[in-house]
């Protein structure tokens, strides 16, 4: 029969240490642990040759080893040597022997002595026996403390075991105060793990840094850009022409001066003819025969010819019919100033933070 009901009544003794060991290993793990019970094997240095180990519970590969509550076990430390130093290991030792056709399993507190070296050198930790109890090993050591001995004194005692929490406090280890819990179901984690929780709404989680302290908040779902936030850029203006409407130019009253450069009456005549070509002579003669100046009357009828460049350059410093003066303007406007969404793709979940 391959199947056994270990925790059921069968009419005979049938629950073995191996059965209990496998169950304990399944609950606590297959390693070596000290449970959060009793005094958790707290130590007391009694003298240079004795350290007492108080009550506690250990599970070594499923085997449950205890020092009963309100008791202790003494670990004997051999004398040290002046000028020398060493490390001893205090351990719980599991042993299995065959006797009278049956198997006897025992546990005891042992001290494994290390090798001495000169003070100033670093002593080595002595080797312990490491056996696989599940595979039937006859011995296995579970170290509790390393004891440093310098000269004839105990210098320090260092704990080397792990304490595992009970199932009732496991949630406190997984979700201590300040932890974040997330779920797509609307369930207060206090009903699952205990403690006090507050819900966080409408926020993403950001890894804390020197610029963002843990617990700080900030950010926004949207942003409205300002002119200073736009990249530097230009606006192109397409080729175009400017139309000038019909218009007149008013010329104020003025005179023209004509001067001959040599003597002779014929020069006077030429001036008279040129000025009076369109009608009554309008001129005055001044000067001698060697130099004659003729001025028109200020209101003399006459015309002027003005030439305007067909494609003036819009540059007041160049020639070719440029306009004078300057003005400014703006290009056409666009945009509404609406806020811009900056949220990445997301999955909404319920987020809780433990506060107590």
Helix/strand order = HEEEEEEEEEEHEHEEEHEEEE
* CATH architectural grouping of the domain at 17-164: Sandwich
Helix content: under 10%
Mean pLDDT, nearest integer? 83
* Structural class by helix and strand composition: mainly beta
| Main beta-sheet annotation | 5 strands, mixed
Based on CA atoms alone, the radius of gyration comes out at 55 Å
What is the global morphology?
elongated
Q: How many strand units?
A: 18
| CATH classification class of the domain at 17-164 | Mainly Beta
Total number of helical segments? 4
Strand content: 25-35%
CATH topology of the domain at 17-164: Triple-stranded beta-helix
Low-confidence stretches: 264-269, 273-279, 286-290, 311-325
Distance between the termini: 53 Å
Please give a handful of descriptors for the protein shown:
Triple-stranded beta-helix, Anthopleurin-A, 356 residues, 5-stranded antiparallel β-sheet, mainly beta, 4 helices
């Amino acid at each position: 029969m391959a199947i056994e009901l270990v925790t059921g009544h069968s009419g005979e003794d049938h629950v073995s240490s191996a059965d209990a060991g496998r169950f304990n290993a399944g609950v606590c793990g297959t390693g070596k642990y000290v449970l959060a019970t009793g005094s958790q094997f707290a130590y007391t240095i009694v003298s240079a040759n004795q350290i007492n180990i108080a009550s506690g519970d250990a599970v070594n590969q499923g085997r449950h080893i205890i020092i009963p509550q309100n008791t202790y076990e003494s670990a004997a430390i051999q004398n040290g040597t002046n000028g020398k130093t060493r490390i001893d290991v205090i351990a719980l030792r599991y042993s299995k022997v065959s006797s009278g056709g049956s198997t006897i399993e025992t546990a005891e507190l042992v001290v494994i002595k290390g090798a001495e070296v000169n003070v100033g050198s670093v002593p080595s930790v002595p080797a312990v026996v490491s056996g696989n109890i599940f595979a039937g090993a006859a011995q296995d050591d579970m170290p509790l403390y390393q004891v440093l001995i310098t000269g004839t004194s105990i210098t320090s005692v260092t704990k080397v075991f792990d304490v595992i929490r009970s199932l009732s406090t496991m949630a406190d280890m997984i979700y201590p105060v300040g932890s974040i819990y997330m779920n797509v179901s609307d369930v207060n984690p206090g009903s699952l793990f205990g403690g006090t929780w507050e819900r966080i709404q409408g926020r993403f989680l950001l890894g804390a840094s020197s610029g963002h302290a843990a617990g700080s908040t900030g950010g926004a779902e949207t942003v409205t850009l300002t002119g200073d936030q736009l990249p530097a850029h230009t606006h192109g203006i397409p080729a175009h022409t400017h139309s000038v409407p019909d218009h007149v130019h008013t010329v104020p009253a003025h005179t023209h001066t004509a001067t001959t450069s040599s003597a002779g009456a014929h020069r006077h005549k030429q001036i008279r003819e040129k000025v009076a070509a369109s009608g009554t002579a309008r001129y005055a003669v001044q000067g001698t025969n060697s130099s004659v100046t003729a001025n028109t009357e200020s209101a003399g009828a006459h015309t002027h010819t003005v030439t305007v460049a067909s494609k003036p350059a819009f540059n007041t410093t160049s020639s070719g019919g440029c306009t004078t003066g300057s003005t400014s303007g703006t290009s056409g406007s666009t945009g509404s100033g609406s806020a811009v969404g900056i949220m990445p793709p997301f999955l909404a979940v319920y987020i809780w933070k433990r506060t107590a």
